[in-house]
Amino acid sequence: MKIKILIICLxxxxxxxxxxxxxxxESVSAQYATIAFEDGIGxxxxxxxxxxxxxxxxxxxxxxxxxxxxxxxVSTLPNYHNYWFISFKERKPDSIEFIFMCIIDKKNGRxxxxxxxxxxxxxxxxxxxxx
Length: 131
Description:
single chain, alpha+beta, flat, disordered N terminus
């Protein structure tokens, strides 16, 4: 009997998390639909674009959708001042930490790069910006 109750509690907790994540995805998608791309992209809009990329790539179960962060260590990258660098940390980092990085053009909101990578391999971002 105790095992059945435990299983029911675990299933209910999982369903609650999934429901919460679904609501968050719907909220981000609704806000994304209001972005005016033609007038340039501010930080708030860049975060929404990055969140939408994370959703589009179906990685919200791995990376924390609710906490987009602006990357600060990008001044060595080519033309860094023309882009927003928005990252997401892993929910449960493994032995090698990865982040999801989204590079967004400040003029038009186009995504130049969006993928996960280990922060120690910043050359990947440099290659994306040069390509």
